[in-house]
Structures are given as structure tokens and as C-alpha cells.
Design goal:
about 325 residues; 6-stranded mixed β-sheet
Length: about 325
């Protein structure tokens, strides 16, 4: 079984740094997003599981709570850096004294997580990046602690999620205004629930407006974006929508190497999952549809704070709108 020292060694950081990240204390200790990603990738690679029982006993001081962040152990762990920063920032704003514990699980296997089947490990949980199988499990399970679902909707649960239809409709209108009839979509080869819903809605609007969609699939990575760009070049379209900023940056590198200019030769827009500055300082800067990650995590903490401190157990849903940040690539 992997230890904290093993995680630290693989990530190339100190044991203290690895501990701060895993305990959700990266922001308060001024640990960079890049380091957070390295630690979480090491956790994923080693399948590291903290000693939850010991941690719970250690943290069981009066008026101090332990909140679990459940997240699927796949490529979406890179997205966690923004979530952890947002959670810690809102805890500080509320003066909410708590520990954040990261619990990585395999997609579709949420039912086997010890913390959700015990009343003694955690006081509350935020659950994100889950599949339909995991949602079905939650429907059938009576969980005794407050739970907030992140970017998912389920009756009888507190939920924070996105309203993506408005910004997608605006994007389609902009595409029509530019007279575009053929577009490309760079898709993740793994059909993640929230991402696929956004892309399906985009495709449906294209169909309604007689806009032909050419789909390309690859892993959600720089390399995946580069690969799809090479395939796109065989049958180029004037516009590309990428499901993630990693894909868009990989594609833009291919364009740079091959003398393809953005936006003169091809227009490019993506969903921003990473830190917003990632695409702000890419070359060229890229127009993105921004996920309101920090606002969503703040809402999740607000709900948990109300449930634990104010004993408010109302099952509310908070929607956050996506927004477009124009940097001239579209």
C-alpha cells in the first residue's frame, strides 16, 4: 500500500507539501497550482488512500469539522486544483474551521467508498466527476451526512451546477453571424457526463441551424489536441470548438508549427477547465468559455456551512452561468 512518502517522492515534493495538498490546505500554504496537479497525479498513479480513521480521530476537536471531497481518479484530477483553491478560500471567508480530505475513487465505484457508508468518518461531503452509475447509487442510498453534488443534478440532494445553454446559444448565433456552415468539434475520447451534455447541446443547435459538425476524438490532453489538429488538417474547417483548453493549446501548437494562423486561417474556442491564465498567456491567447469553478465551490461550502452550523437541511440547487472570455481567437 502506497504511503504519503511515496506520493511525495513521485511528485518530487516534500512530505509536508504533499500533506498540505491532500488535506486541502494548498492555498493557505501558498502552494502553486502546478504543484497541486503533480501531487494529485501522484495520488492517482499510486492509488494512495489516506488513513481515514486515524485522520478522523485526530481532527475530532470541538467545533471542527471534516469535509470530504470525492473526485473520480481519472484525467479530471487536473481540474481539482481550482476546486481546492476555491474551497479553501470560501472556508477562510466564512471563518469556517474545518479539514478538507480528498477521496479519489474509480468512476462507477462510489458505492464502495467507506466514508459514505459510515457516520463516523466525515461530517459532510462534496461529490464531483461522477457517472450515471454513481448517481443511481446515490438515489438508492440514504446518506446521513450533508452531501453537495458538484456539477450534477439529483433530486433530494444539494447541488451546485452550471447553466451552459445560454452561452452555447450565443456561440451558435456568433457562428451563424460569421456565415459558417462547417465546424469541427474536438471531443474527449472518454464520454464524461457534464462535458458530453454540453457538446450534445451544441451539436443539436448546429443541426437545427444547418451547420455541419465534423467530430474528432482523442484524450483530453495537449497531445490529444495536437493529434486531432493533424487529422483536422486533412479536411480543414474555418472554426474549431474544443471541449477543453488542454486540447485547444495542443492544437494551437500544431498550427504554429505548420504556419496556420489563428484566427485568420482557423478560429478556435474552448471550454476553460484549467486556470483561466493558462489560455490568457498561450500563444496566441485563446477565447474560452469559462467554467465558474471558484463560484461553484464557494456555493458548495456555503451549503455545507449552513447545514452544519445553522442546521439548515433544505435541499437547494444553485446554478452558475458559463461565460465567454473573448481574446480574439474567434
Amino acid at each position: 500500500m502506497a504511503t504519503l512518502k511515496d506520493v511525495a517522492k513521485l511528485a518530487g515534493v516534500s512530505v509536508a507539501t504533499a500533506s498540505f495538498v491532500i488535506n486541502g490546505k494548498a492555498e493557505s500554504n501558498r502552494i502553486s497550482e502546478k504543484t497541486v496537479v503533480k501531487v494529485m497525479e501522484a495520488v492517482k498513479t499510486l492509488a494512495y488512500k489516506p488513513n481515514l480513521s486515524a485522520r478522523r480521530l485526530k481532527a475530532s476537536t470541538p467545533n471542527r469539522y471534516t469535509i470530504a471531497l470525492y473526485w473520480s481518479a481519472d484525467i479530471r484530477t487536473a481540474y481539482m486544483a481550482r476546486i481546492l483553491m476555491g474551497l479553501r478560500e470560501q472556508c477562510k471567508a466564512l471563518n469556517f474551521d474545518c479539514d478538507l480530505v480528498i477521496c479519489l475513487f474509480e468512476t462507477g465505484m462510489l458505492q464502495f467508498e467507506e466514508g459514505l457508508n459510515s457516520e463516523h468518518l466525515f461530517d459532510a461531503a462534496i461529490i464531483g466527476a461522477i457517472s450515471n452509475d454513481d448517481l443511481d447509487y446515490l438515489k438508492s442510498k440514504e446518506i446521513s451526512i450533508p452531501v453537495v453534488l458538484f456539477n450534477r443534478l439529483l433530486d433530494d440532494f444539494m447541488c451546485v451546477t452550471t447553466e451552459y445553454k445560454s452561452v452555447t446559444e450565443k456561440l451558435i448565433q456568433d457562428i451563424k453571424n460569421k456565415g459558417l456552415k462547417d465546424i469541427a468539434v474536438f471531443k474527449d475520447m472518454y464520454s464524461f457526463l457534464a462535458t458530453s451534455e454540453r457538446t450534445k447541446y451544441l451539436a443539436s443547435l448546429c443541426d437545427e441551424n444547418d451547420i455541419k459538425v465534423h467530430e474528432y476524438t482523442a484524450p483530453q490532453s495537449y497531445e490529444g489536441g495536437y493529434k486531432m489538429a493533424t487529422e483536422w488538417a486533412l479536411n480543414p474547417t474555418p472554426f474549431i470548438f474544443a471541449e477543453s483548453d488542454l486540447m485547444a493549446i495542443g492544437a494551437s501548437h500544431y498550427f504554429f508549427e505548420n504556419g496556420i494562423h489563428i484566427p485568420n486561417d482557423v478560429m478556435l474556442i474552448s471550454v476553460a477547465l484549467s486556470e483561466i491564465s493558462t489560455t490568457q498567456f498561450s500563444n496566441p491567447p485563446l477565447t474560452v468559455i469559462a467554467m465558474p469553478t471558484e463560484e461553484m465551490t464557494a456555493s458548495a461550502i456555503d451549503m455545507i456551512h449552513s447545514a452544519l452550523i445553522e442546521k439548515d437541511t433544505e435541499k437547494r440547487v444553485k446554478f452558475h452561468e458559463l461565460s465567454m472570455i473573448d481574446r480574439g481567437s474567434f
